[in-house]
User: Fold this.
Amino acid sequence: MMVNKTKIVELVNEQLDERMYLVDVQVSATNVIKIFVDHYDGLTIDRCVEISRQVEHSLDRENEDFELQVSSPGLTEPFKVKEQYLKNTGRQVEVLTADGIKRTGLLKDVKPGHILLETSTREKVEGHKKKQLIVKEHQIDFGDIKSAKVVVSIK
Assistant:
């Protein structure tokens, strides 16, 4: 018997406080349940354990054999929900648009229908011998975003 994904989503949402959000729930054909939650201030292992226990105690192992995993999405994983954009405002992100254009820049702002991404490039400008730093702001509609993720930089 397959675990009901909608039921899992409801159980998880009951456990979230105002600073937490559900990113994704995946249920495989073999009843491996993967729950991805996040918190604006960072997710603790204790919160993952609390959510795991609540979900596990609400499901009937007699009727449904399952494996349960609760975690935050990985740093290199693409964004799936708007809250991930909000959490990462002010960070460097890589955005791939539906038309194949990849832009990397500072996530300046998140609006109801789009994001504002600030890019900086060195370009040859007429009247200057050296390339000049050109800063541009791009408004990208959520519907035009194929994928977006944080740029991990180790300096």
